[in-house]
From TrEMBL:
Domain DUF1731 span(s) in chain numbering: 419-464
Family from the record: Belongs to the ribosome association toxin RatA family. Belongs to the NAD(P)-dependent epimerase/dehydratase family. SDR39U1 subfamily.
InterPro entries in alphabetical order: COQ10_START, DUF1731, Epimerase_deHydtase, NAD(P)-bd_dom_sf, SDR39U1, START-like_dom_sf
Protein name: Uncharacterized protein
Pfam families: DUF1731, Epimerase, Polyketide_cyc
Domain NAD-dependent epimerase/dehydratase: from-to ranges: 175-392
Signal peptide: none
Domain Coenzyme Q-binding protein COQ10 START: 13-147
Phylogenetic classification of the source organism: Bacteria, Pseudomonadati, Myxococcota, Polyangia, Nannocystales
């Protein structure tokens, strides 16, 4: 039998060991730590962290094949760390000690500590499994580099942009979210939970017993009154996907889902005796239509279907504004993450070296990293200076051609195979406008309030998301 191998990653963190321990113990920490480039699925959620809890995940092995990984929490050292061990799974054995330590090398004090991940593992199928020793080591380096970067960035975001009381001390919020199961909502919910905030999910099905879910029905215009009672903020993300055929039925679904949902939320807030302080309602940079100019939040509404949808979407917040609630209309650029959306769909083609610009490639391409989409919304929740429209977009302006070239460069692949505009129009019809038209939206408001971008350049965004930073 082969001996075990040790892997260790150590990073300084800007909080105490007790605070770092609390971050890891809170609900949804697993969601924040899961690498976005890997399709890891939590099959059994054992609930609160405790000795004896047994989470089960499935991980990709090769192609469509997956392997279940059954783990057990075997030790919890209050305020200092915990240990999980493999019961069954892809390794011969696995013991992962998560330690949160005061350390003079990182200035360990009351408000600073070291995050230490120490893994002792043995490869399966000895001696044949040894051929994978190098790649597995590199995968662990990539995984834990991501986990430490994500932990550090989240902790800094809460310290820099979190809400404060009258004495300037951090305070927790109660936040209601629609669309919490979507690409952005899933991560926003996890970010808020791990930061010590309370989250309420508004769902259109029967709420799960004992959960943080509450029912709402945008088609009927109703919201469970208990859902919004006592909340500090509402984040409204729900809406039908635009990634569908733009025939009459599809366009009606895209438009009506946004108008009905936003009107329902805004009117429910307006009817409250004590409404939340802020409504952050999603919109899109499609509001500006297709134009060559760089546009800030003060630019007028453009033309085209997406501009029409965004305009109606934003106008539907009127009831909340008229009730005196601070309303933020968050115009999202294309959110780039390999976990879903546009980037996930493009990666296969680009990895084969067959990627390239769409149409002429000169159209603007507004983008934002998933972490900055979340971070921008969090700043909008916390900062009373922010109201009205804000562009949730990366600060680097690029064209579609520049995007394709950068993605190819990050992947180490050529990216000079253009997709002709005529082919896109023939295949997608009117929906092709979403790809062939574009805008370069600048995040003027976030820049003005001093927001610190996790991914200030497109290359940063792609490298971080793909685990290549």
């Amino acid at each position: 039998m082969a001996s075990t191998t040790r892997f260790e990653q150590r990073s300084p963190m800007p909080v105490s060991a007790a605070e770092l321990f609390a971050w890891h113990m809170r609900p949804k920490a697993f969601v924040r730590l899961t690498p976005p480039w890997q399709d890891v699925r939590l099959e059994v959620d054992p609930g609160p962290m405790r000795v004896g809890a047994e989470p089960i995940i499935s991980v990709p092995i090769v192609g469509p094949f997956r392997k279940r990984w059954h783990a057990r929490i075997t030790e919890i050292d209050e305020g200092a760390g915990f240990v999980d061990e493999q019961v069954s799974g892809p390794f011969g054995s696995w013991r992962h000690a998560h330690r949160f330590e005061a350390d003079s090398s990182v200035g360990g004090t009351e408000d600073r500590c070291a995050l230490v991940d120490r893994v002792d593992y043995r490869l399966p199928f000895y001696p044949f499994g040894q051929v994978a020793a190098g790649p597995i080591r590199r995968d662990l380096e990539r995984l834990f580099a991501h986990r430490h970067r994500r932990t550090l960035s989240d902790l800094r975001r809460h310290l820099d942009d979190g809400p404060r009381d009258a004495e300037g001390r951090p305070r927790s919020l109660r936040v209601a979210i629609t669309g919490a199961s979507g690409l952005v909502g899933t991560q926003l919910e996890a970010f808020l939970f791990t930061g010590g905030h309370e989250v309420r999910r508004l769902v259109r099905r029967e709420p799960a017993p004992g959960s943080n879910e509450f029912c709402w029905d945008p088609a009927a215009g109703t919201v469970d009154p208990a859902a919004l009672e006592g909340v500090d903020a509402v984040v409204h993300l729900a809406g039908s996907t635009v990634n569908q055929r733009w025939d009459a039925a599809g366009k009606a679904s895209i438009l009506n889902s946004r108008v009905q949902g936003t009107t329902t939320i805004a009117e429910a807030i307006a009817a409250m005796d004590t409404p939340p302080a802020v409504l952050v309602s999603a919109s899109g940079t499609g509001y500006y239509g297709h134009r060559d100019a760089i546009v800030g939040e003060d630019a007028p509404q453009g033309e085209g279907f997406l501009a029409e949808v965004a305009g109606a979407w934003e106008a539907s917040t009127a009831a909340a504004s008229e009730a005196g609630v601070r309303v933020v209309r968050a115009r999202l650029a294309v959110v780039l993450t390999p976990a879903g959306g546009a980037l996930e769909q493009m990666l296969g083609v680009f990895r084969m070296g067959l990627g390239g610009p769409l149409g002429g490639g000169q159209q603007g391409f507004s983008w934002v990293s998933l972490d900055d989409a979340i971070g921008g919304m969090y700043r909008a929740i916390s900062d009373d200076q922010i109201r009205g429209a804000i562009n949730l977009a990366g600060p680097e302006m690029v064209t579609q051609r520049e995007f394709a070239k950068t993605l190819g460069s990050v992947l180490g692949r050529p990216a000079f195979f253009p997709v002709p505009a005529g082919l896109l129009r023939a295949a997608l019809g009117e929906m092709s406008a979403a790809l062939l038209e574009g805008v370069r939206a600048t995040p003027d408001t976030l820049t003005r309030v001093g927001y610190r971008f996790e991914a200030p350049t497109l290359r940063d965004c792609l490298r971080q998301g793909l685990g290549l930073a």
